[in-house]
């Protein structure tokens, strides 16, 4: 019984740890491109822990961006923080897996030629490229940036040439974005899953397997 509780305790400690597990960069198959995981607003990288774990066990080096914290920083600054991780580790041929706002940060990086050339593909999950209708109801500047009237989102929408590097995966119904059309991106690879929920999709095994499928075929 004591060994059982010790095992459970270790699992909980590992799940809530602030640092990623050693295998994220310690178990790497030669030739596999680096993967950066980016969570959505209010969440840390741990929200994508299931993605990170399974991607890592496939032999991909997995990077996080601790400086993003709970991702309340504006998208432009957030992109600079991701850029710092890319520069520090001399990353190329990068795959970004971003949930919600994380996908927008990824697309913003494509506006910079330096990082555009370094990024292979962005896999965006439940990302409100055209904004989320409920975002404008939240009295916080970080949410206003995610509303349909956001100047920054309009700027991102105008940059259609970047869409060819994006895979947009979204649920059939997303109560936070409200309309799945917001996640549909002209010129991108769009994949609608028979799922419901904005955050629920990132813990769904089918969604995770779809992301891994897109990583391995990119």
What would you note in describing this structure?
This protein has 218 residues and is of the alpha/beta class. It has nine helices and six strands. It has helices spanning 2-16, 23-26, 49-57, 75-88, 101-109, 113-118, 141-144, 151-158, 205-217; strands at 35-38, 62-63, 94-99, 119-125, 166-173, 189-196. A six-stranded parallel sheet has the order 2-1-3-4-5-6, sandwiched between helices. Helix 4 crosses helix 5 (101-109). The longest helix is centred in the first third of the chain and has 15 residues, at 2-16. The termini are far apart.
Shape: globular
Question: Gyration radius, to the nearest Å?
Answer: 17 Å
Largest sheet descriptor: 6 strands, parallel
Structural class, please? alpha/beta
| Low-pLDDT segments | 4-17
H/E element sequence: HHEHEHEHHEHHEEH
Q: Strands of the largest sheet, in order across it?
A: 2-1-3-4-5-6
Q: What is the typical, i.e. mean, pLDDT?
A: 86
Strand content: 15-25%
Q: State the share of residues found in helices, binned by percent.
A: 25-40%
> Termini distance?
46 Å
Quickly count the helices.
Answer: 9
Number of strands: 6
| Oligomeric description of these chains | single chain
